């Protein structure tokens, strides 16, 4: 079993506009595409993406629906070597000035894609430029969430930041490369609950044997949401304790 993070999926309302944003501004290239009768999935990533790096999956449904962002999903984060220069580069390209480095204490910054998904810029000395560093999700019980990822997928705790009103916990598969994407669990201390929305789809973890590893996930009491058979043995889906969908692929 590996359970490395393979990709994160988000839904977009205009595929051409979303593709232009990520290919022109981040230099992403199309890694794969699935054109089905009712939807299109496109996987994107940097040209020199690490072998354990994760892709961004854009899902476009052909019925022109719109989406609710919700607040149970937070953002994706991309790596840059110079935070201020990279943010300014996006500003010069016409991206909305959302949260600049100064407003974030000089530690990070945020922009939004054309559909409103938040993208954090983080300064790193590893990984390809604009590669996915982490995906943040919000959880209602930090202890339960940490236990879920540790037990179900054998993740290890790689970092934490505890502030006055919230805490962030970073998790990766045991032994994952530094360049691999992490999942960031954000826990707010005020006991709030969250709306899942539908603009974000899922996180995906890679498996060696779909049926065998699916059985392991169920043995560890993760939800039997969409089993391999119901997905033509191409993939399967479970959910974490808060309802975030997790694909096994």
Short descriptors:
alpha/beta; single chain; 249 residues
What can you see in these coordinates?
The protein is α/β, with parallel strands linked by helices and 249 residues long. The protein contains four helices and 14 strands. The mean pLDDT is 97.
Write the layout of secondary structure elements.
Elements: E1 5-11, H1 15-25, E2 28-35, E3 39-46, E4 55-61, E5 73-80, H2 83-92, E6 108-112, E7 118-123, E8 132-139, H3 142-153, E9 155-162, E10 166-173, E11 182-188, E12 200-205, H4 210-219, E13 236-239, E14 245-248
| Main sheet attributes: strand count, strand direction, barrel closure | 7 strands, mixed
Low-confidence stretches: none
Strand order of the largest sheet: 2-3-4-1-12-14-13
The helicity comes to 10-25%
Separation, N- and C-terminal Cα atoms: 12 Å
DSSP helical segment count? 4
Instruction: Write down the overall mean pLDDT.
Output: 97
Principal-axes geometry comes out as: globular
> In what range is the share of β-strand residues?
35-45%
Order of helices and strands: EHEEEEHEEEHEEEEHEE
**C-alpha-based Rg, rounded:** 17 Å
Q: Name the structural class.
A: alpha/beta
Structure summary, number of beta strands: 14
Give a quick precis of the structure:
Strand 13 and strand 14 (245-248) form a beta hairpin. The chain is α/β, with parallel strands linked by helices and 249 residues long.
């Amino acid at each position: 079993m590996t359970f490395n993070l393979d990709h994160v999926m988000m839904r977009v309302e205009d595929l051409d506009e979303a593709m232009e944003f990520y290919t022109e501004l981040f230099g992403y290239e199309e890694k794969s595409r699935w054109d089905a009768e009712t939807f299109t999935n496109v996987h994107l990533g940097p040209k020199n993406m690490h072998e354990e790096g994760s892709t961004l999956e854009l899902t476009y449904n052909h019925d022109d629906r719109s989406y609710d962002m919700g607040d149970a999903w937070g953002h994706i984060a991309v790596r840059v070597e110079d935070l201020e220069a990279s943010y300014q580069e996006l500003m010069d390209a016409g991206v909305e000035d959302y949260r600049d480095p100064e407003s974030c204490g000089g530690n990070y910054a945020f922009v939004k894609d054309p559909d409103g998904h938040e993208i954090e810029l983080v300064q790193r000395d590893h990984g390809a430029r604009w590669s996915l560093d982490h995906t943040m999700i919000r959880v209602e019980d930090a202890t339960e969430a940490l236990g879920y990822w540790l037990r179900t997928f054998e993740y290890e705790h790689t970092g934490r930041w505890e502030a006055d009103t919230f805490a962030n916990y970073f998790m990766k598969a045991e032994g994952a490369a530094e360049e691999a994407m992490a999942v960031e669990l954000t826990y707010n201390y005020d006991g709030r609950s969250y709306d899942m929305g539908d603009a974000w789809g899922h996180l995906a973890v890679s498996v060696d044997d779909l049926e065998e590893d699916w059985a392991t996930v169920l043995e560890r009491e993760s939800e039997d949401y969409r089993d391999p058979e119901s997905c033509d043995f191409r993939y399967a889906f479970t959910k974490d304790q808060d309802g975030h969908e997790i694909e096994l692929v």
